[in-house]
Design brief:
Chain lengths: 228, 233
């Protein structure tokens, strides 16, 4: 290939990549008018422009708080009947009716409300998906090959039902590691030492699944970070 | 004495070749010693189509719930009844078993399914001590005249079961994961003149712990062993 042809090919390739980037950028900004930045509020419907913010700019803390206050005010204006604070604190919306008054049937949650949209089917999906994830952790916990142990030793051989793993006591300082450890650090310590494997990356699906299994075995235990 | 790891790959063929019968007794210095094979399981492997290694691994696991409960079984109970017929009731008995000869925690097979029937055969004797393995920890119990002591492991420690721990057990501190020898050890059983025993747990990286006959005799009111610093979670 001659030098001029090579330059032409590089130029064409550069133009193509730039074109793709431009299209992607346009898609990202499609809800914002030119020169402004819009956000979608947490009802998933309402869009609003952030006053005074230009694309590529970053708000300082004071202006960011002012913008957040505007978002919430706007959200409340669009969702006047939604119990924002009550939804956060998870307390009943109304005190129980007095025993003497005519008891009314509780109102059906409105399907449009942000915090009332979940159906029984949704809850079942959450439950089944969570159980599947925990079960995968259970499988890996009991199988040296699954997490990369090289001598056949698996986690359950010292920790039946994840006993003595006490995930509720992390984070805590481990003298021998010379730092504050999370549960995953101790899982990796065990993988490296008694099972002679290689540590898993923090986002490794096997590590995540094992964390899920170990935590699931301690349901209802009080969280006590730092306890030894 | 047979443990489940010795048995379930070849159903004890190699063990028998090395040691002979798994159930036997002998007398020594006025004490009658009995050795039982307490990890008999009902056949769970044939219906599941498990090969010998799968069977072995299933029995070796604690928390898989795919196996039967340990038991001594009718044949050995008959043998034990006949063996004890000729022994004077004042003779101290020391019984060795792998599983504890009582019911502690079924999900991990810290358990013997026909424990009550075996205990009934031991009950007529004045002093009975059962020394067992399987739980890999300081474990102390007394049921009537039968005193039970667990043994330590030399390979790896087990946590205490989440429920069912006998009241007389003073837990040992949980093992330090950074010390590969912690929570392990050997031990000694000293048979005293009255036929009762002191159990000495010789933990390799800790001070030894003695569980005295007097502690069990007084149902925990005297000679209490030291409390753990770090208990099982």
């Amino acid at each position: 290939m001659s030098r001029s042809k090579l330059i032409a090919v590089i130029a064409l390739a550069t133009a193509t990549v730039a074109g793709i980037l431009q299209i992607r950028l346009a898609a990202w900004q499609e809800k914002s008018a030119p020169g402004t930045v819009s956000v979608t509020l947490c009802d998933g419907k309402t869009d609003m422009t952030v006053p005074g913010l230009k694309p590529g700019e970053r708000l300082d803390r004071v202006r960011a708080q002012a913008a957040a206050d505007l978002f919430l005010a706007e959200w409340k204006r669009h969702n006047p009947d939604s119990p924002w604070l009550l939804a956060q604190s998870n307390t009943p919306a109304q005190p129980a009716p007095a025993a003497t008054s005519q008891a009314k049937a509780p109102a059906e949650p409105k399907q449009s409300e942000t915090y009332s949209r979940f159906s029984e089917r949704d809850k079942l999906v959450w439950k089944l998906e969570t159980e599947k994830f925990i079960q995968e952790g259970n499988r890996i916990f009991h199988n040296a090959d699954a997490f990369g142990g090289t001598i056949g030793v698996s986690c359950d051989m010292c920790h039946p039902n994840a006993a003595n793993t006490h995930p509720e006591t992390y984070p805590k300082y481990q003298v021998q590691l010379q730092r504050v450890a999370l549960l995953r650090d101790m899982i990796n310590w065990c993988i490296q030492n008694p099972t002679k494997g290689k540590p898993l990356a923090d986002d490794d699906p096997r590590l995540r699944a094992m964390e899920a299994y170990i935590l699931s075995q301690r349901t209802g235990k009080a969280i006590e970070p730092g306890k030894h | 004495m047979v443990g489940e790891h010795d048995w379930y790959f070849d159903m004890g063929a190699k063990w028998r070749e090395f040691f002979g019968q798994p159930t036997y007794s002998f007398d020594h210095k006025g004490v009658h010693f009995v050795v039982l094979m307490s990890v008999v399981e009902k056949d769970f492997w044939t219906p599941k189509g498990l090969n010998p290694m799968e069977r072995m691994k299933t029995v070796a696991g604690l928390d898989n719930s795919n196996q039967s409960a340990f038991e001594v079984g009718a044949a050995q109970r008959d043998w034990l009844a006949k063996d004890l017929e000729k022994v004077d009731k004042k003779t101290p008995l020391v019984v060795f078993s792998h599983s504890p000869l009582y019911k502690l925690y079924r999900p991990w097979n810290f358990w013997t399914d026909d424990a009550e029937q075996v205990q009934a055969l031991l009950q007529p004797f004045q002093t009975v001590t059962v020394i067992h393995g399987h739980t890999h920890q300081v474990l102390t119990n007394r049921i009537g005249n039968i005193y039970f002591h667990g043994l330590l492991s030399t390979a790896w420690p087990w946590p205490y079961a989440p429920e069912g721990l006998p009241k007389l057990t003073v837990e040992m501190s949980r093992a330090n994961p950074f010390d590969p020898h912690d929570g392990l050890g050997d031990g000694r059983v000293d048979v005293l003149a009255d036929g009762l025993v002191n159990k000495i747990y010789m933990l390799w990286d800790r001070n030894p712990v003695t569980v005295r006959a007097s502690y069990l005799q007084a149902m925990g009111k005297v000679d209490r062993p030291p409390a753990p610093t770090f208990k099982t979670y």
